[in-house]
Amino acid sequence: MTALDRTHRTAHPSWVASAKDHPQFPIQNLPWGRADEGLVVAIGDEALLIREALAAGWGAHFPPEVRGALRHGQVNALASCPPDQWRMVRHALFDALSDRDWEARLRPALRPQSKLTMRLPMHVGDYTDFYASVHHATNVGSMFRPDQPLLPNYKWVPIGYHGRSSSIVIDETPVRRPTGQVRAADAEVPTFGPSRSLDYELELGLVIGGHNRLGEATVVADAADRIFGVVLLNDWSARDVQAWEYQPLGPFLAKNFATTVSPWIVTMEALKPFRVPMPPRPAGDPAPLPHLALADDWTWALELEVELWTLGLHKKGMPPHRVSQVRFDEAMYWSPSQLVAHHTSNGCNLNPGDLLGTGTISGPTPDSRGCLLERTWRGSEPLQLPDGTERRFLEDGDQVILRGRAVKAGAVPIGFGACRGFVLPA
Amino acid sequence: MTALDRTHRTAHPSWVASAKDHPQFPIQNLPWGRADEGLVVAIGDEALLIREALAAGWGAHFPPEVRGALRHGQVNALASCPPDQWRMVRHALFDALSDRDWEARLRPALRPQSKLTMRLPMHVGDYTDFYASVHHATNVGSMFRPDQPLLPNYKWVPIGYHGRSSSIVIDETPVRRPTGQVRAADAEVPTFGPSRSLDYELELGLVIGGHNRLGEATVVADAADRIFGVVLLNDWSARDVQAWEYQPLGPFLAKNFATTVSPWIVTMEALKPFRVPMPPRPAGDPAPLPHLALADDWTWALELEVELWTLGLHKKGMPPHRVSQVRFDEAMYWSPSQLVAHHTSNGCNLNPGDLLGTGTISGPTPDSRGCLLERTWRGSEPLQLPDGTERRFLEDGDQVILRGRAVKAGAVPIGFGACRGFVLPA
């Protein structure tokens, strides 16, 4: 459904030995990250320092504005270039990392990923979070509104809301359990204290590229060109705070204390071989209105999972244990293009580096639910863990690990790395 | 209730002649703005170019970091300095603009305000909008939930949500009527088209100063030091879009197409003489929980108003006509300090330049309601205008003008200037 090129071929060795058959970062991936040394690209277990690569002569044929963008510390400048230039840079990376003639010049620009301190790959001007998985919306709705799980607007409007940019943190940043105002079900008055129902949410984050001017929409047919790449995203949530505060204007303190993203932006171009058709809407559902309708609309064939791991602050420890596994292409009611088109349909301007969360990604089965609220059905069906403990919600000392891989027959699988967060006491 | 100093004295002439008895910008005000020439301070009908003033020798005694902050193009760097330094700069401005010995050196750094092109005074990292006027919340609630106008959380939680930073625009920026998805009351399915119920919202915007680290709250007793200053704010709203989209996660496209702010940040220090006690809560209302309780909590004595003016794109024109007038100190249920303390109470980090809208400011009487939704009671009681037309909601060619003044016996009144927006057709 999209044109593939030489960077997507399955048999293409890199002179970086660890890239061969690498489960996350083979040469077909080449995701962008940011270390203290500036922009970096993952290849196998290593990362290429882009400033050093430029100094070694790589990219000499790029236009000056692209070379300038690559010297910036974050991806925003590159993401503001046209998509053709994203592809040009990808091709130049691919060629240099697969051509032995480049090895002597570029090897000094490689560092083991384990030696780098990763930072947020982009400056997020605005962060939006959607609610695009119909299974998630149905599950949560049936807990809070048993008579009407899905509101009448759900199948017409890609529901979304604005989140907090300042508290977006990178993989491995500890997350402090938030304190907040809650009212117990049987209480007359609320109290203020540490949240007792801290949760994760398994999401993808779309990183925006390019600009649309205020007042001018990006139409759905052009929306794919507004996605620079994709990260894993954990939209931490305090369910007890949320339940008390969210009427009538939506979530606020229940979510704005932390949002964790993975360090590597997997590019639209790297994900091209994994595009699959959006599943048809169930019989009887309305067709999208014309401004949201895309012939041959697509999504990505991604396998996502959540692991729980605990240091055992209060109990014995436990190695990482998978608690959920879900296919992105089976979970979503609204496609990536529809989210972008909807967001700009009123003229709202999206800027490079802006982040669009998909909302919690839940599939149709219990073990594919993307947050503990659903996974334990509001705490009523606790998870039994291998260390003999159980979880209704997160405990201090728990670490949540999100993982993701793109997998499709005929393509070399690529990975998103990990998105980890460790829960500190309040 | 707070210590005043020489900059608040009533009789203090400036050598800038137009500052004397100026209704907006006497020497007691000294608000911050940004022009193409960098930071500027309003004085009478003029503005002082700060970079030129520094070059002329003003501020020579400031620490280097303050001089550096003042050379920045926006107020964010100054707002990140400690409040003592905000006051030091204010004193130096006041002294130089009232001391004739400075006139020869600083007069060349003055420009008529009418010759400057004003820009957004701050970079807004995150924009939050509250819902802190109980009259507004009660009015809107009684339209949508007649049986329960105020939800149970309202008197416990300062309700707020995150807005869009990218679409914040400065005074006089035209606002295009947004297009969006709406469902008529009697319709089976929604349609997509220009909003038919475009509205304004009269608000104040608190501009944040200083930092709190992620995970560390600013306690209510320290909250005043987190407010650098105040602007007028118009939170444009498409009511038909809002009604259809806002469940369950709050307003999104109904509001993120534009938010207009006034060009001058009136500082906390300039507003000190206008502090008045927060009105007592009505009998029977709960006391705030301890983390929101401030002995001698305060608000500001401000007179705010909305004017409507029309170019008459479709009809004959009309000069500015006042449609609402409200006292801030009679309208709000939650105080400025409570908004800041609540926002950070879960550890959410506020950064310099962040913007906190108060929510629509409505008083107890019909002519003090701060948006057309309330003013015309959802369009059922249209406003009769002097040109013989009526308004349920805004028409193309209308201009909305917000104005504000701080007025209190014994103090020289100061003004906020204007916050204007002209409605363009979709």
Number of helices of chain A: 10
Overall radius of gyration of chain A: 22 Å
First-residue to last-residue Cα separation of chain A: 49 Å
Gross morphology of chain A: globular
Poorly predicted runs of chain A are: none
> What is the average of the pLDDT values of chain A?
96
* Oligomer description: homodimer
Structural class of chain A: alpha+beta
Helix content of chain A: 10-25%
The largest sheet of chain A, given as strand count, sense and whether it forms a barrel, is: 8 strands, mixed
Strand content of chain A: 25-35%
Any overview of this molecule?
Two copies of one chain form a homodimer. In chain A, strands 6, 7, 8, 13, 14, 16, 17 and 22 form an eight-stranded mixed β-sheet that branches. In chain A, strands 4-3-2-1-5 form a five-stranded antiparallel β-sheet. The first copy, chain A, has a five-stranded mixed β-sheet with strand order 9-26-25-20-21. Chain A is globular and about 70 Å long. The longest helix of chain A is centred in the first third of the chain and has 16 residues. In chain A, 17% of the residues lie in helices and 27% in strands. The first copy, chain A, has ten helices and 26 strands. The mean pLDDT of chain A is 96. In chain A, 55% of the residues are buried. The N and C termini of chain A lie far apart (49 Å). With 426 residues, chain A is an alpha+beta fold. Chains A and B meet through strand 7, strand 10 and helix 7 of A and strand 7, strand 10 and helix 7 of B.
